Amino acid sequence: MRQRSFSLRAVDTAVSTNIPVLNPLRSAPFEAEVLSNDPLIYKIPNLLSPRECQTLLSQVKVLGDEQREEGIIDGEDERILKRSNPPQVSLEISKLWPLPFLSILAGIPPLIHYYYEQNASQATPAASFLDILSQLPPSDVLSLILPPIGAALGLSLLLAFGVILPLVQQLSNQSSRTSLAVALNQERDFYLVQDLVQRVSKATQHDWSRYEAPVLTYYPPGALFAKHADASPTKGSEWKDEGGQRVVTCICYLNTMEPPVISPGGTGGGGGETSFDQLGIDVAPEQGSALVFFPTVPGDSLEADPLLTHESLPSESSEKYIIQMFGRVGRVPPPLGLPDSFGALVSSSDN
Domain Prolyl 4-hydroxylase alpha subunit, which positions (predicted)? Predict the structure, then answer.
């Protein structure tokens, strides 16, 4: 059985703060509700207070100004609450290993054609295929088979990278995610995220510097995020300059969504669960609660855990607000991560 070493007992989330807009953090340790031991998934019911959630919600609503097509925060910068990026789609080179071998098959028809030509030109009884080929110099064999093999291999790669991958990415862009999001990664956001980041860091035992900046995400009614994995299938190789592989996910729910209710007129309200399809676990959003899981398999392999694919289910009539944080193996540089000045603020508040 896979095992992840992690202590969930009485983790103290208290940190000092001098930010008046948010409630002071509770000094009492939180209780973690374990939803799955393998892979480890747990829920923290009281990570954010109702007032803290309302403060963050008000920021989302400012960003989503309905008088503009997408909305802007204000005139000081050009950040917008915009459509979230869909999960990255990529082709793993290691999975293309059959292509060279399949392309070799393209060299067989020219040899067969040469065999029939030779037999047709001889008055003697037909020689075997191997007999005729054995009389052919190796250089002539190569001249027969290399052009079609090269053409087949080139065409296969062209189809894979030039047609199939762009098509999959286009379909992903159109349907996989329909939420709106903005990263809180600037110094002006520190008053909003300082306590949250410190608390999540303590709750997950993962330093703030190895987290991406918190992202506020808004799901309008009917919006979704189709099944995906948070970790990279290539162990984070494409993110080597951005902190490497994702190893921690924390989703904080800013509003409560009740389960769907069946009525005579159909289904109304609720929904919005975070659903783990491989585990049969659905987590309903509850204001102030946080969902934590670790998207790589236990150990140091950094392989994406196939059991932790998940999706955000749509709600036909309710809005959903979350703030999410992704922890990585190494330091996440700004603007994806928080700047070093955030660390100075944390140090000063701890003293």
Answer: 39-328
